[in-house]
Amino acid sequence: MKGPSKVLPAIACLTVLAGAIAAANAAPERAGANPLRVGLYPAGDGTVEVVLSNTSARAARVPKWQLPQEILQSNLFSVTRDGKQVAYEGALIKRGLPQAKDFAILRPGQTYRTLVDLAATYDMRARGDYTVSLASPLQYASLSDGRKLQTARGLPMLLKSPSLRLWHDGGVAPYVQKLDVNARGKPCNPRKEECGGGGTGSISFVGCDATQASTATNAVNAARNYSENAKGYLAMGTVGARYSTWFGAYTSQRYATARTHFVDIDAAMDQNAGQIKINCGCNQSYYAYVYPTRPYEIFVCRAFWSAPLTGTDSKAGTLIHEMSHFNVVAGTDDIVYGQSGAKSLASSDPDGALNNADNHEYFAENTPSQN
């Protein structure tokens, strides 16, 4: 099992190839084509080598979390074994708008290599023949002339590789990186009033002081109201602007999927015997994150505490977002972030919207209110 010392920083870890291609020799750009090209090569023991090149004559600006790194903090790959998808076991993170420090700058013609330990974050315990491909949505990515890396439909271009087949002997459980989790404040006692749980212990807390636990309890209660309302809307068969804004064009099959998702989200939120665990130890700038195969622990981070209780990107909505990620609930991913991105996804790719956590959050928050 690999320890934290092997984790490489997101983009600083990428090794620049000797003799990087000069901008003047960059490959000609084709209109609508993604200038970022990527290839995968087997490196043994569940690891692949990623070779990433900026073929444009312009610099590319890309959020670091969308680029491969040794231990992933996003679900960037499709990994199948003998034709069946295997589980991603790394973190799924609700992020806000990226700041300047969150971007990597890829110079014109520059090529990078990095090793990605897939067995560290995907369930490759079983021996077998695996097929791997990279498919990372490049939301917020742009070129130095201001052009966004978007498709004609307004969706993020994909940083996409050809498929690679590799054999893995299995047998090692994924090593999941802890994302700067440290206890903060004096932990409260969930069996007492100081945790804000009414003395029932209905919510578990890790590393939370009394104020944090009280705030988180209010957020859970507000999230329960959200999930109940969303479940009720879908149970009535309503197909109004609220549904079409966040989940796109109606089909009976897609509607049934949305309904099932919120039945399961509501059931998970309603658990009241300590199954929901709020971990206050995260000191990252995110809103929150979870590990999808480890229900029902939600790590709340700095942006969570400054968010409003309800409304757009709220504390309650964040909990809906994170609860939808658990594989035993709705098994959603993070394809795009933000209301604008979620609306575009619903309009252009309704199936993608049903797999995107922010679409579920914004449907539940319903701000501004729609029928």
Question: Which terms would index this structure?
Answer:
371 residues, alpha+beta, five-stranded antiparallel β-sheet, five-stranded mixed β-sheet, 17 strands
Count of individual helical segments: 8
Range of helix content: 10-25%
Q: List low-confidence stretches.
A: 1-28, 196-200
Secondary-structure element pattern, one letter each: EEEEEEEEEEEEEEHHHEEEHHHHH
**SS-based class:** alpha+beta
Radius of gyration: 21 Å
**How would you characterize the largest beta sheet?**
5 strands, antiparallel
- Strand proportion, as a percent range, falls in 15-25%
Total number of β-strand segments?
Answer: 17
**First-to-last CA distance:** 51 Å
What's the overall geometry?
globular
Mean pLDDT: 88
Quick synopsis:
The chain is of the alpha+beta class and 371 residues long.
What does this structure look like?
With 371 residues, the chain is an alpha+beta fold. Helices cover 25% and strands 21% of the residues. The chain has eight helices and 17 strands. It has helices at 210-235, 241-247, 252-269, 302-306, 315-325, 338-348, 350-353, 357-365, and strands at residues 15-16, 36-44, 47-54, 60-63, 77-81, 84-85, 92-94, 103-106, 111-117, 128-137, 142-143, 158-160, 164-168, 204-206, 277-279, 288-290, 297-300. Strands 5, 6, 10, 12 and 13 form a five-stranded antiparallel β-sheet that branches. It has a five-stranded mixed β-sheet with strand order 7-16-17-15-14. Helix 5 runs antiparallel to helix 8. Residues 1-28 and 196-200 have low confidence and may be disordered.
Detail the topology: elements first, then pairings.
Layout: E1 15-16, E2 36-44, E3 47-54, E4 60-63, E5 77-81, E6 84-85, E7 92-94, E8 103-106, E9 111-117, E10 128-137, E11 142-143, E12 158-160, E13 164-168, E14 204-206, H1 210-235, H2 241-247, H3 252-269, E15 277-279, E16 288-290, E17 297-300, H4 302-306, H5 315-325, H6 338-348, H7 350-353, H8 357-365
Parallel strand pairs: 14-15, 15-17
Antiparallel strand pairs: 1-9, 2-3, 3-9, 4-8, 4-11, 5-6, 5-10, 7-16, 10-12, 10-13, 16-17
